[in-house]
Design brief:
Length: about 150
């Protein structure tokens, strides 16, 4: 079973705590986790955890076989979206454009009113409450949990 990025980060934080103990320095696991999150550009551990869980939910293990268009920035993705269509999904600092077949594989009905209310750019949903409902369903679906949870 593949280990999640969260498990890896938690393990590295535990190692830092043990190394600190060896040098007589006090470092709690919580401090090490928070430090790790900030180094990766997140506000705190909870923010990092939420983002990694989101990434696992929208791009589960095994979905790499599905063709999606990847972009380094959201602006690049939006430029493509305007001319070619699809659905832009943020993924960390990157994003990808997918089609309705991909959304269906995630367990979303292409005719779902929430999907239509969110609009094609998930980085800037038209209706935030619809996006929160979709996100909750994706996270509950368990498709992303194959990578493990921390």
């Amino acid at each position: 079973m593949k280990h999640s990025r969260l498990e890896e980060l938690r393990t590295r934080a535990k190692i830092r705590v043990k190394n600190a103990e060896k040098t007589g320095t006090t470092l709690s696991l919580k401090q090490a986790l928070e430090e790790s999150a900030r180094k990766q550009g997140y506000a705190d551990w909870r923010d990092l955890k939420r983002n990694l869980e989101w990434m696992d939910a929208v791009y589960p293990e095994g979905f790499s076989r599905m063709l999606n268009l990847w972009f380094s920035t959201t602006n690049e993705g939006r430029a493509y979206l305007k001319t070619k269509g699809g659905t832009l999904i943020p993924y960390g600092k990157q994003c990808f454009i997918c089609d309705t077949d991909y959304l269906a594989q995630l367990g979303l009905d292409p005719q779902d009113p929430d999907l239509k209310a969110v609009g094609p750019d998930w980085s800037a949903p038209v209706e935030a409450s619809a996006w929160r409902r979709l996100t909750a369903r994706l996270l509950k679906s368990g498709k992303g949990s194959k990578r493990g949870n921390a």
